Amino acid sequence: MREIIVWLSADGGNDIYETITVPNDFTEEQVEKVAKQAIFNNIDWGWYEKEDTLASN
């Protein structure tokens, strides 16, 4: 098994670090997939559409 340090550098210095363990035979693509999931498990995000206030006047 390989131990991988995963990080996300966010604005404002709110960096996130995780340690994941992957099998020795994982490809870079497989490691990346697991790493992304580990980071996204720590992120709460979303979106909304800005309402056009000029159109309602």
How does this model look, in words?
With 57 residues, the protein is of the alpha+beta class. The protein has a domain at 18-43. Helices cover 23% and strands 25% of the residues. The chain has one helix at residues 28-40; strands at residues 2-8, 16-22. Strands 1-2 form a two-stranded antiparallel ribbon. It is elongated. The N and C termini lie far apart (62 Å).
Kindly summarize this structure in a few lines:
With 57 residues, this protein is of the alpha+beta class. The protein has one helix at residues 28-40; strands spanning 2-8, 16-22.
List SSEs in N-to-C order: EEH
How are the strands ordered across the major sheet?
Answer: 1-2
Percent helix, as a range, is: 10-25%
Report the count of strand segments: 2
From the spread of the alpha carbons, the general shape counts as elongated
Taking the sheet with the most strands, its summary is: 2 strands, antiparallel
Uncertain regions spanning at least 5 consecutive residues: none
Distance between the termini: 62 Å
Mean pLDDT: 90
Spatial extent as radius of gyration: 18 Å
% residues in beta strands: 15-25%
Structural class computed from helices and strand pairing: alpha+beta
**Discrete helix count:** 1
Secondary-structure map with pairings?
Blueprint: E1 2-8, E2 16-22, H1 28-40
Antiparallel strand pairs: 1-2
Primary descriptors:
single chain; 57 residues; alpha+beta; two-stranded antiparallel ribbon; 2 strands; 23% helix; 25% strand; elongated
